Amino acid sequence: MEILRVINNSNVCVLDEYGKEQIVSGKGIGFKKKAGDTVCKEDIQKTYLVTDSDMQRRMIQILQEIPEVYIKFTDSLVEYIRERLDRKLNESLVITLAAHICFSIKRKRNGVDMINPLLDTFKRCYPKELELGNYCLEQIEKKFHISFIPDEAGFIAMHIINARCDNDYNEKYKITKLIGGCIKITETRFPNINKCTDSYEYFTDYLKYIAKRIYSGKDITSVFTHNKDLIKSVNNNHSLEYKCSEDIRKYILETTGYDIMSEGTALMTVHIARITAEADGSQGENQTFTA
């Protein structure tokens, strides 16, 4: 296999014999290598076939930024998950979940907890994935000597749900297009947001969850808060983020015919406010964010 790009000592981007780009991992596989060199199949321990160019760029960025200990640890978690699910999982789960774990540990050590507004929904709709999320959380706490609130298991479950390969191509395309449109709206209003944060990751995971529910014909209103006072408070305290959420609401309605209503807009506002707070450097320590 020909090396297209060296990511780090343990990961390289290659062109396989079928002309497809892959990310491959192995001990020292990128050490003193450069583009144009070859990789022996015997040296490859893990292969990630990623057809989506945006996902590939994201994976390369993650591999460059997070310590390898998280990749190796997460690989063992994903193997455990694969053995207990009857659905195929996207190969990218190892890397995206590793990034989530890394960011979550950093956030927790800075004294910040994240409340998961979808936790009760996962208990009802995805009990198996949530059970696996709880297992992963236990292993994380043991490995890194840290303690999380139970909500973190829900975020891990969301990664597992989003990595499932049981949607047809047409549905995946629609989901990807809808998410991309929502992200474009957000980045147009807030061009300085940092995409390499856990808050941005939670925002995109929320968009994936909403999109999958819409295109599978499942109701999503049950995951929204129906507290009118809370909705009003959120929208009043984050007026710019609320306007962005309203633009996203209109886009989703025009694209899918589905209205997320004021309840969905409020939750969207909370996610965007978390992102802009990090971009502004205004998140302090010992905070708990709720929807």
From TrEMBL:
SMART domains listed in its UniProt record: CAT_RBD (SM01061)
A single GO molecular function term of this UniProt record: RNA binding
GO biological process: regulation of DNA-templated transcription
Superkingdom, taxonomy of origin: Bacteria
The keyword Repeat is annotated on this UniProt entry: yes
The keyword Cell membrane belongs to this UniProt entry's keyword annotation: no
Domain PRD span(s) in chain numbering: 65-170, 171-282
SUPFAM superfamilies: PTS-regulatory domain, PRD, SacY-like RNA-binding domain
Alphabetized UniProt keyword annotations: Repeat
PANTHER family from the UniProt entry: CRYPTIC BETA-GLUCOSIDE BGL OPERON ANTITERMINATOR
Name of the protein described by the UniProt record: Transcriptional antiterminator, BglG
Organism: Ruminococcus albus (strain ATCC 27210 / DSM 20455 / JCM 14654 / NCDO 2250 / 7)
